User: Fold Signal transduction histidine kinase internal region domain-containing protein from Chryseolinea soli.
Amino acid sequence: MPFRPFSEKLRLMWLHYLVWASILMISFFSMLQADGTGRSALSACSSCGFYALIVYGNIYFLYPRFYQKRKFIPYLLGSIALLVVAGLGRGYVSLYIRNPAFAAAPHWVDTWTHVTFLLSVTTVFILSFIFRLAMAYFTLKQQSEKIAWQRSQFELRLLKAQVQPHFLFNTLNAIYYEAYMEAPKTALLIERLSDIMRYFVDQSTKEYVQLATEIQFLDHYIALEKMRIKPEPEIIFHRSFDDQRKIPPMLLMTFVENIFKHGIDKISGNNTIHLSLYEEDHQLIFQTKNFLNKHADPRQEHGLGLKNLRQRLTILYGKDFDLHTTEDNQYFIANLKFPLT
Assistant:
């Protein structure tokens, strides 16, 4: 079902209004016969005001600032202070409104009366605490339902999206066989493109892929890029790792894509690219090194791919990774290190 946050908030707001209006009317009519209309109305309004102070002071201030953060002692002290202020305030204001003798000569009342003042608001505080727990429960339940709905919609869109690419794969395969006899190089390009697209559809949505599969995808991408660049760049790829290791998909792609997007100098043709991928102490280390492109367009945007990669690594590994780039007068070097599973 669709999620409508604004309608939910509006309904909750009207529910609050209805509850407080009911409490106000009950308080008013319970005192009407003894105190008359004017005093009953004033007393009911003052009582509701102090009750609201307790309820909202607890659920919107004390509970989220202290209880949710497991700061129980500050929460207890804050709750006591709130009860004292609200309890004594309500008690003395009620005496002033309903007792003409007290109104004529206000004074401190005895200890037992103070205790009754505090007890009269303690129940309200307990109810507010229970209400806040219920709010937390239903909020969590609502979020879970929203996530489940979004996930079902995503899975549905994914299933729909997979139909067209697989149809396209079959079409590419048909074109490949037609081109193979007449233009083998074109057929090879089609085959590489088909393999890359199949990786996007079948592998990139998984949580982990085999390192061998990820490297095969990189090899296809590099081969495709080399074929369109003249003269072809020289790629030196050193690798030393266990092929059966698994990593999240597309983590290595950003470095290589950045080289072909920003680091290829088509004017000078000096495009030697060094790639190094190896395993050390249960960490995968990937380094790329290429000549600085002296003829790059200064208007071209840089750094977005690396920024997105860093955000993704933070989600996956927290602070347990290293991503940095350096450059000198000749080379641009990118380094990535993250844990292996």
Observations:
- Helices lie at 5-67, 72-98, 100-104, 111-182, 184-202, 211-228, 253-262, 304-317.
- The chain has a mean pLDDT of 82.
